[in-house]
Design goal:
- The protein has 262 residues and is α+β, with helices and mostly antiparallel strands.
- It is 38% helix and 29% strand.
- It has two domains: 91 residues; 153 residues, Rod shape-determining protein MreC, domain 2 (Thrombin, subunit H, Beta Barrel).
- The chain has a six-stranded antiparallel barrel with strand order 1-2-5-4-3-12. The chain has a six-stranded antiparallel barrel with strand order 6-7-8-11-10-9.
- The longest helix is centred in the N-terminal third of the chain and has 78 residues.
- The termini are far apart.
- This is Cell shape-determining protein MreC.
- InterPro entries: Cell/Rod_1, Cell/Rod_MreC_2, MreC, MreC_beta-barrel_core.
- Keywords: Cell shape, Membrane, Transmembrane, Transmembrane helix.
């Protein structure tokens, strides 16, 4: 009985709603509902579009950032390669200059290394040329590549002694091939390496700078390559800086040398 009443009431309610709708009595209510639902739909649509646009812009910015990063890496790589190429060209220019010097220089004596002085403390080599060949103390000695390796320190009739630049007692006035053409004193250290000192702090020197002979040493011509700066040391409250120089040739593998005459 109760179910029949519910069905009857539902039918009557549905019939009344249909009747009122066709009579136009629900127009205001329906319009209000459509407006509210329409605004909600537009809000949801707009919100969805904003979210999509945000993520699209984020992806675009991320891609742009990655592309810029790759471009910067390529530019950096090209700059490094250009720097390396310029350095190699400079080195080749210096080596060609040294070799051309030997070709043009007629006033030199070629000699063979025949041994090493018995003194274990000093780095001194013996050569097979001496007084009879026009040699004398103080003359500069070059390797086959035209690179300065030492000085004549003792001369006898048929042989001589060369003090190698890494010898503890070796001291040579040098110039640095940087924009300021800085100068200093290069000395040997423990027969192992070269120490460049007396360089003013105002001079801008750096690893890779070439070191050549200056015109302040009698018996040694200006511009002979010696090596390149390996590291630079600066100390607070000191007026000078120093540097470690790597020789341009292996000083332990000298067989033929050239003594430059006056």
């Amino acid at each position: 009985m109760f179910q029949k009443k519910v069905i009857l009431i539902s039918f009557l309610f549905f019939f009344i709603v249909i009747f009122f709708h066709y009579q136009g009595w629900f127009v205001t209510v329906e319009t209000a509902l459509q407006t509210i639902l329409g605004k909600g739909s537009r809000g949801v649509y707009t919100f969805n579009n904003d979210i999509k646009n945000y993520f699209a812009r984020w992806v675009s910015y991320r891609n742009l950032f990655e592309e810029n990063k790759k471009c910067l890496e390529k530019i950096s790589s090209l700059s490094i390669k250009q720097g390396e190429l310029a350095q190699i060209q400079d080195e080749n220019k210096i080596l060609r200059s040294s070799l051309n010097f030997l070709k043009k220089e007629n006033n030199f004596v070629m000699a063979n290394v025949i041994g090493k002085a018995p003194d274990p403390i000093n780095n001194v080599l013996l050569i097979d040329k001496g007084l009879k060949d026009g040699l004398k103390e103080g003359l500069g000695v070059l390797a086959e590549e035209g690179i300065l390796i030492g000085k004549i320190i003792k001369v006898e009739e048929k042989n001589s002694q060369i003090r190698i630049i890494t010898d503890n007692e070796s001291k040579i006035a040098v110039s640095i091939l940087n924009p300021d053409q800085a100068s200093g004193i290069m000395s040997g250290e423990h027969n192992l390496r070269l120490l460049l000192t007396m360089i003013p702090l105002t001079e801008n020197i750096k690893p890779g700078d070439k070191v050549v002979t200056s015109n302040l040493d009698s018996g040694i011509k200006k511009g002979m390559l010696i090596g390149q700066i390996e590291s630079v040391q600066k100390e607070l409250y000191q007026p000078f800086q120093s540097a470690i120089v790597k020789p341009a040739v292996d000083l332990n593998k000298l067989n033929i040398i050239y003594v430059l005459l006056d």
